[in-house]
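Person: I keep going back and forth on a fold encoding question. Show me how you would write down a chain together with its backbone fold. Please set it down just below, with no commentary around it:
Helper:
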Amino acid sequence: MASLHLPPLRSASGCVRLPGSKSISNRMLLLAALAQGATEIRDLLDSDDTRVMLAALQKVGVGVTALGGGAWRVQGCGGVFPVKDAELFMGNAGTAIRPLTAALALSGGHYRLSGVPRMHERPIGDLVDGLLQIGADVRYAGNPGFPPLTIHPAIVKLAAPIRLRGDVSSQFLTALLMALPLSGVEAVIEMTTELISRPYVEITLNLMARFGVKVEREGWQRFTIAAGQGYRSPGLLHVEGDASAASYFLAAGAIGGGPVRVEGVGRDSIQGDVRFAEALAAMGARIEWGAQHIEARAPVSGKLKAFDLDLNHIPDAAMTLAVAALFADGRCLLRNIGSWRVKETDRIAAMATELRKLGAIVEEGADWLAVTCPRSGIPGTQSGAAPTLVPNCAIDTYDDHRIAMCFSLAALGGVPLTINDPACVNKTFPDYFDAFAEITAPVIAIDGPSASGKGTVAERVAAALGYHYLDSGSLYRLTALAALRADLALDDETGVAALAAGLPASFSGGRILLADDDVTDAIRTEEISAGASKVAALPAVRAALLARQRAYRRFPGLVADGRDMGSVVFPTAGAKLFLTASAEARAERRYKQLIAKGMPANMHALLQDLQERDARDAQRSVAPLRHCDDADLVDTTEMNIEAAVAAVMSIVQRSPL
């Protein structure tokens, strides 16, 4: 789509499983390609940048096989690419073109590397200068210092240390470190300037060690690779979650109340961007660390504090801080971020332009940015007084995934905004806006016993608001139907839970499908209703369907009905309602529904069944049916549907969605 409209957002809470790290994914792919033996890489990021690397490796003769579920097998070539003549299109993937350039320069072949127009504006001269020092034949096919490049066979000699600048990008050092073991002789790199983004070099050194190559370093000035080392496959590797991507969700928790938990990175992570959480803590956010998770909440005071930070060590995640500064209580200074100038776009200029659209006062320098946002002085967001953001801004993203992602946080200021070219997030996080919606999109949770009218009311409220609708009861009915069709006993907890986890359910045009079978009417029989109640009492089944239900949370919002929507599935819903009615009134409604469909019905049996179901649902060990203290009670015994909808809409309209 050309643009994505975000509604005003006021809170954030939930849990996000992060996609694999781009930096780790592309490094692992290249090292596996250069190694002896086959490597299985699991949880590999599926994005534009990793597809560029995979395609390039295939073009130079490396065997790569998709195993499914984010797993790939790479058949290493022992440092010698089989194909000696290839033309490689590298898109705008810096983590692919730079290390590949170095590896190909030592491979004795003819190669041509190009990319999108912006790639041809991103500097690569320092890397080429380093390669020329050892006799590599790398030539500029366009402007000197920039791609496109041509590489020709050459005899490489490492008689003296390679002298390399490190103040533009750490990727040049990473590229040389990863390629030099192919020479088989001792290699030394000496830095001639300060090295920026050091945590990314630490990722490189860590991964090289996993493939059997040790690098000795003297501080951050001199790196030595001993002779005789070569890459050997470690067999099986897992890609960590993307710590840079974690920054958006952690910031959302700090701004929107929280808790927001990210899974896939934590205190054991090898990525430096996890230190973004320390910057949030400096702003007063409450941070909890686990081995493989981080959780963020708003400050106890409700107000984020202004900051003055050197962010050289987390340049990508620092962009998120620039938007978080909109919610701080004063002028925020981001220092030592000069590398932003040579990324996917000139990020300092771009961030300044877009922040000003929102009403921020922005100052910028060669390597710094200062952000101040006037505040209204009245409560608005979870983090205190609302920033006076300009509503309905259209944020331009400059084909830069990180700009698109970090500016989504501005909607937590309670203003609608538009993200232009949202598909640019495909570079590293194709599902970003779905994941963001799962912790921020407004939710109206409608609970209540069977036949209380909650389904019909919820569907009509969703239509009136233009929200998505979730009938959670259908998922349990579908599970019961699928179990019976598979000849599974409904009390076979393990078997039914496994079936529920992979249930091929879909909802379209008011119809409910199980795989390609329209089962809209089939799941409404009394047999399936009773079966749904039985499987819903199984803890493993409820756990299997929990994530699926939460995935229905989408922009502009969701109305979800079910017996534990407000208590378990969406405990932080902006509006919670509990619809009820007397058992007699509910039995009469069910009787009329069945008769209208030409189905047999017995009033006494229906009443008895509802009473038994109420008792069973109230006594179950997991998510028992109950009226939550924070849910508005609506008794529909004496109401028709129109009156019930009006009552619910009245409550919704005064709720802080």
Notes: The chain has a mean pLDDT of 92. The CA atoms of residues 213 and 229 lie 6 Å apart.
